[in-house]
UniProtKB/TrEMBL annotation:
GO terms for cellular component: cytoplasm. GO terms for molecular function: glutathione specific gamma-glutamylcyclotransferase activity. Transmembrane segments: none annotated. It comes from Mesorhabditis belari. This is Gamma-glutamylcyclotransferase. The keyword Lyase applies. It catalyses: glutathione = L-cysteinylglycine + 5-oxo-L-proline. Keywords: Lyase. Pfam families: ChaC. Belongs to the gamma-glutamylcyclotransferase family. ChaC subfamily. One of its GO terms (biological process) is glutathione catabolic process.
Length: 200
């Protein structure tokens, strides 16, 4: 069923030969599936926001964690990693992994236009990603930055504390995209660090 769904979103040639997957959160450092190639890139027309709640990996039912999703923003481009998954076996395994990890936690598959540098040229391509829209049951949405930072500092799930996710994401974005100023993410990072230092 999942494989047929993906075939409907991409051309038959694309899904049978290779599939690009765009990751903008923890997939950046931990994709969890086999791939043949990875490249830095951007999802065009989107901004990364810590608006999605998580009650499993980075939080629980009493105190959901906050993890990244993409929101529509025509003036922005969200940075992340593009992974090229090759062949039906590898593609099927990647889709099954993403279904369990992302779709089972409020995300939906979506094909987005991405921009990536290849052979010293900027190339546009379609890639599969997972986006949590505001109508899913875990969605927390925007709030004042200090309130979101406090939620992140206190939440903890089976994969570890929520603040670990946010700090690691900020560190990877800063390392991979040194020219980028992800104001939303970096402001949250700063407030989370200050809160942790106060408790130390």
């Amino acid at each position: 069923m999942l494989f047929r769904l993906s075939r409907a979103m991409l051309t038959q040639n694309e899904i049978e030969s290779s599939l690009w997957v765009f990751g903008y959160g923890s997939l950046i450092w931990n994709p969890g599936f086999l791939f043949e190639e990875k490249r830095r890139g951007y999802a065009l027309g989107f901004a990364r926001r810590m608006y999605q709640g998580n009650t499993y990996h980075r939080g629980d039912d009493l105190l959901p964690g906050r993890v990244a999703t993409l929101i529509n923003d025509a003036s922005s481009s969200a940075s992340g990693m593009l992974f090229r998954v090759e062949g039906q076996k590898q593609i099927r395994a990647a889709l099954e992994h993403l279904t369990e990890r992302e779709v089972g936690n409020g995300y939906e598959f979506r094909v987005v236009a991405c921009e990536v540098e290849m052979d010293n040229e900027i190339v546009q391509m379609n890639a599969l990603t997972c986006i949590a829209h505001h109508n899913n049951e875990f969605y927390l949405g925007p709030d004042e930055t200090f309130k979101m930072a406090d939620e992140i500092r206190r939440a903890k799930g089976l994969a570890g504390p929520n603040y670990e996710y946010v700090l690691k994401l900020a560190e990877h974005i800063r390392l991979l995209f040194p020219e980028e100023n992800d104001r939303h993410l970096f402001e949250l990072e700063g407030m989370v660090r200050n809160g942790l230092a106060t408790l130390a």
